[in-house]
Amino acid sequence: MKVLIIENEIYLAQSIGIKLNNMGYDCTIINSFNEFNEEKRYDIILLSANTSNFLKAVEHFKNSIIILLISYISTDVVSTPLKMGASDYIQKPFMIEELIRKIKHHQDFRKLLAANKTYESYIKSRIKMIKIPEYNYKKIKLPLILKSNLQNSADAFVFKYLYEHNMEFAYIDLAATNAIEKVMKFHFENSLLFLNNLQILKTSEREILFNFIKNKPVILHTNSQIENSKFNQIDLNDDQKGIISDEILTIDEYIRYIVLNYQNVLSDTELSKKIGISRKSLWQKRKKYDLKKK
């Protein structure tokens, strides 16, 4: 990580630079922004508010992590720079350990932010590929029992609900050890709880769970019919079985699934070889299942 220290107190700048260099950072020191005349990119800017043109420095480096080194707190040296894009500030005199803690905090935050955007983009692209009925998610009341043979369909429903309500969520697999205890300890504060594999619970466990989540923001997924009149229920009506279903597929169901999902990815020669049948048999299967190749 490349660090630019803009500080006119030379001893302070050198002390910071030595400490950061020892931790693996690559530090450069200048007295003010006026000395900066290169196109080199820096990940972290330690900027003293006592240096000339420090607001110009904030504007120039606003895409980097900027930590202001200030002698006092005021609108000019704190509020304005933060609005312009500075990340944080630390007041002199300070312990170098506290400065390093702030640097690491903002490094971690940016990594998490980038990762979160990547995951969100990936999830949204995957959800667009999953076809489920349209619902008015604003009017759906929770708790809700969601019946679906396909986990992907249930996931798509939940994420669409979350996006519509701008909520955070947590996931608990009811097949996991101590799942009920984990549910009981969950703090709901503007968070939706998504529970999977409701069908595996015993009747007594189900009653305990239902009593606890009453009037709480919970969506329960099951792949079988659940007799319950307490909560709203939605059946996604996805009768097609898939590899991710808990049910055992017949040979015909398996071959139909593979052909349907891979016939536009693999050539007929590759596909028939992977399934273990001839190209003629593949053609016959496609005709039998009424599958058209794009």
UniProtKB/TrEMBL annotation:
InterPro entries on file: CheY-like_superfamily, Sig_transdc_resp-reg_prd, Sig_transdc_resp-reg_receiver
Highest taxon of source: Bacteria
Annotated Response regulatory domain residues: 2-107
Name of this protein: Response regulatory domain-containing protein
Native source species: Campylobacter taeniopygiae
